Amino acid sequence: MVTVDKRIRVYPNQKPWMNREVQQLVKERNRAFRAGDRAHYSTARANLKRGIREAKADYRRKIEDHLDSNNSRQVWQGVQHITNYKTNLGAAEDPFKDRALRLMAETPLIDGHNDLPWQMRKQFNNQLNKVDLTSIQTTHTNIPKIKEGRLAAQFWAAYVPCDTQNKDAVRQTLEQIDIIHRMCQKYPESFMFATSSQDIEAAFAQNKTASLIGVEGGHSIDSSLGTLRTMYQLGVRYLTLTHSCNTPWADNWLVDTGSEPPVNNGLSEFGIQVIKEMNRIGMMVDLAHVSEKVMDQVLNQSHAPIIFSHSSAFAVCKHKRNVPDHILRKVKEKKGIVMVNFYNDYVTCSKTANISQVADHFDHIKKVAGPSIIGFGGDYDGVTRVPQGLEDVSKYPDLVAELLRRGWNDSEVTAALGENLLRVFRDVEEVRDALSGEKPDDVPIPYEEVQNSCRTSHGYEPVVSAGTTVSVRPLLLALTILLFCCY
Length: 487
Prior knowledge:
- The protein is an alpha/beta fold.
- It has 2 domains: 20-93, no CATH class; 108-434, Alpha-Beta Barrel (TIM Barrel).
- Helices cover 48% and strands 9% of the residues.
- It has 18 helices and 9 strands.
- It has helices at 20-35, 38-68, 72-92, 95-106, 116-124, 143-148, 169-186, 197-205, 225-233, 254-257, 269-281, 292-301, 325-333, 344-347, 355-369, 396-405, 410-434, 472-486; strands at residues 109-114, 151-159, 191-193, 209-216, 236-240, 284-286, 307-308, 337-340, 374-376.
- Strands 1, 2, 3, 4, 5 and 6 form a 6-stranded parallel beta sheet that branches. Strands 7-8-9 form a 3-stranded parallel beta sheet.
- The longest helix has 31 residues, at 38-68.
- The radius of gyration is 27 Å and the shape is elongated.
- 43% of the residues are buried.
């Protein structure tokens, strides 16, 4: 691989025609890019294109000279050069792929959701010392695939299943947060732990994958604002309000299918507290997995833009995990983002799908709400079926090329690659800063909303054995009146 400074890769493989002059021109272009000098960058880029044309022409002449020679060794070298030349032409014959790689070299690709940490638990019980992420082949994601896919920033999901709710969800979530930290510590040359929009850009400049944390499922905070704040301090930057189960304060998407009854008819009062506290601390609200009513309520309640970290368009595939058109329009009004999911069942509502059908979701969202709300949310390593042409994280450039082939312009593509998510992230940070003077919300969820056999009532008012809350205030009032009357 030719690496031409720590930010921009130009060619995935060494080209036989690439000479020293071209390499110097590449470096000059990169210097201009890093300096932010647009005039110099434009000139350097034009010089590079000229240099590439001349290098290719010179290489072709060398081939012809070899073939014209009477020396059998030179003729054989000429045949080899032709083979290499045609191979490289074949690799570069798709101008949309070349253009995709160029755009991905200039703009960070940010993906909203990847479940590699869950695969570390599922396959290795989080024993990361037994795993080599540079060679593992039992996952959609490994470090070579990340580099080939030009994946510049990834929100890793700290996910634990719904059956941990009311049991050990918090402990298991903390262990998933821990393994994301340890992935970054074990592979510092590839991953950079990130907690801000600025960190994403810094990692991109260092040619590392910015690694952020999203907690997938409100059951992971066990209805505790203190736990929510603690997870933020550990680096969590979004919370998916539900997974595929209701929490005591928010309904999930299965309610819309009729397979689960609603618990809150959307968000409870405590659910609204959760949204407000997330706004205050600067944690993004993720609406993937929630019911349609929760989507609508949160969009009304949140002061900061929201995200769908891994959801697609309902109009294209009528699955309740996807986003209806009227919500897409509301997301645009609120300047949020929908990061398109690659799971076959959400792409085509069937077990099979292909890259073109994923692009259909991008096209539809753009048609309904414009390019400013679109992002990538592959859901790799969290699903069992992925589309043909998007078999793993190395395939992102092919999807970008497909969008370009369909007529997306450069600004639309770069918006979807990462500019939209960076804008949302910055807006969330601005809301946090504006609310910095507000005190943390320390009003707990009512005990009767979370009472179960695994939960104690410490800190709440006394509870009788049958579970009914007994308030001491009426008793004190009655005692005071009695004493007043008697004396």
